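Exam revision sheet. Question 4 asks you to relate a sequence to its structure. Input first:
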Amino acid sequence: MIELKDASKAYPNGVHALNHIDLRIDPGEFVYVIGPTGSGKSTLIKLLNGEEVADSGTVTVNGTNVGALKHRKVPKYRRNIGCIFQDYRLLPRLTVYENIAFALEVTGTPSKQIRQRVREVLELVDLKDKERAYPDELSGGQQQRVTIGRAIANRPSILIADEPTGNLDPICRWKSSSFSRKSTRRRARRSSWSPMTGNSWTGSASERSCSTKATLCMTPAKAATNRYEAAVLPVPL
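Answer key, C-alpha cells:
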C-alpha cells in the first residue's frame, strides 16, 4: 500500500510543490496522476522513492515510513521500486544489455538468472537488436524503452513512472502503457502498485486518475468489472 497523509513539500526558492496531500493506492491498482507542468507530479514521485523528504505529514510505502529512513537504508528500500525517469538516467558507458542487467546485479541475482531475465526484458521492450548499443547511439524513444526495461527487470513490487511514454511514438506508447497495465494485473496478488504521471492520455483505460492541480485525490466509484478498487478514464488537461 502507498499512503500519503497531509504531506507537504516546499523548496528553498519558495515554490510549494505539494500542499497537504492525502492519497491512498491499494494493491493491484494502476493510477495516473495528472496535472499541468509545475503541479507537483515529479515531486510526488521523489517523495515515494526517497529522493526528497516531506516537510510535514507522512509518506508510507509498503509499510515503510519513507521520510524516516536513514540515508544509508534508502538504496535497499529502492530495490523493491522500479522507477522510470523522464531524463532516462542511463549509464553512458554501459550497453543496453548492461544497463538492464545492472538493476539485477546490485540485488545479487545469479548470473544465469540475469542473462535469462535480460533477454526476456529486451524482447518485451523490443530492443533485442540493440543490446550491444550504447545510450548515445540510441534515439530518445529507444533510450526511454531501456529505462522502462531497467525499471521492470527485477520485477519490483511497485512501479513508479514519470511521464514514461513522452518520447515514444503513438504505437510504442500504446504498447508500453498496455504492458504496464498487464504487469500490474499479473502481480496484483504480490502487492503491486503502479502510480504514473503525465499530461496526456496514453491508453484506452486506466484504473484510477488523481489530480495534483487540486492537491486532492479524486476517488471514483468502483469499476463495473469490479477488477480493482476503483477505475476512471484519465483525461488530458
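Marking note for examiners. The mean pLDDT is 76.
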